[in-house]
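U., I forgot to send this yesterday:
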Amino acid sequence: MGEKMKPFQMVSASQISVFDADLDPRTGCNRRWYLEKIAGVPAPKSAGQVVGGDLHAQIENYYLAGGEITSPILIPGMPYWPARSPTVECERWFSLDVPDWPDDRPKKLLSFGEVVDMPWGFGRFVGKPDILDPGVPLVVDFKNMRTFSYVPKAEALPRLPAMISYARAALQKNEGADEVQIKYVVHKTEAPYKAREVGTTMTRAQVEQGFSGLVQIIGTMRKTALVENWQDVTPNWGACRGYGGCPYRDRCEAARPRSGKVVDAWPAALAPFESSDGLPTVVQVAALVHLWLTSETVPERAIEILSMLLRSITDSLWEGTVLVYDEAEPRELNTPDEQVVNVFRELVRWQNAAKIDLGQDRAERYQAVIAFLTARKVPCESEQCVADRFCHCHFQVKRKGSTMNMIATETEPKAEIKTAAPVLAQAGFVIVYGAVYKHAGSVLVLSEFLAAIKNQIAHENGVAHYLQVPFAKLRGDVIARGLLKLQGVQGVVVVDPKDEVESEIARMLMDRAVLVVGVRS
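Result:
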């Protein structure tokens, strides 16, 4: 198969997060983990990893050598940092025993690449928390994010593999403690620079229960590591473009069976929906959606199942969120089940391409649900929106917007331009979403503006590393912001609704350009 197989000899929290799609359906994928850790196919670093590495180096220098913090990104977060003390450990390795997987390797400390003194032979589970203070005990994980929208809530921290393992390491060093403090300190990497702290406590019983769950996942990883060919490892097609995209996406897509063989995949993809009355898993829905998007022949049953799911989940989410949203008491917000939301996200990806007719009432519900879920992620400086972690401004506007993508129709672009006030529209900048667009002007090809866009991105973020990052590794929203900064850009951006990065670019530009919804031939 071209790759040299590596034995599976140790595990970490990051490996588990990459492997298990149930933890995060947008990124977790058995095959991605296998390609990197077992097949040994190197993955290039993303722009965020490069910038994050530099910021973590400053933090480490601060705690270990008393170095000065100079980054404007980090300075706002320093009030949340633990004080330097003899008991505070920074970036220090630990190892944990894994039940039923004894570590019989010779004990030593390994150093290779960027890894220094990693324990070998002391336990199969290894990790290196940013801050661990066994005296409290306390665990701190520093995160650097473009927006606070992706910051997990405090109640979600005890479910994260990293926090479970770090907490267990802290309690292992402090055997008399009954609980451990865990927290994120999040630094916003875009101006205006801000910081946020999210924390909670875990009891010893919670830590042990959480680690038992990780041990079960590790057992599945050990079985997967025995597979001889990476193409036989189950993929999660829904994670191909999550958070900037999987580095192995092109390899997987190129190896996917074509023509008649694709039809053979339908029975297996449809089977879970025929044998269960409960909500399907995100991975099952993502697999069916991916097959629908990439197959030349689609059985009617697949369309029936996806249509039924979309209608059912739209109604369910609408009743639990939009229907009970009270404008007079907007702080009373229902939080929808995360699994239902993730399934809905996959169905939206399908609907963007399928454009089935939902009927006027349900189409309005669909649009309102999207507006509600998006409002949970939209950053807003309004005091109430910040307190509620929900952008009421966005929701109030978008819930009443046009129900695009419900019924495919072509729109005359000149009529749209007359009513458009945004700056880009005035410059002749048009987004064509899922449409064949005939225009006298030029069609904008993003790659032609590569150098200019990357320069704007680097200038906006104050980080030169963006100039070295491959264009394909930049997120759609990052590209869009760079594009918005360019002067004199005119033309048409044709967006493929099947491409999540292109769709993300369109979403970022929608409020500032003309939107034309139509049919791609």
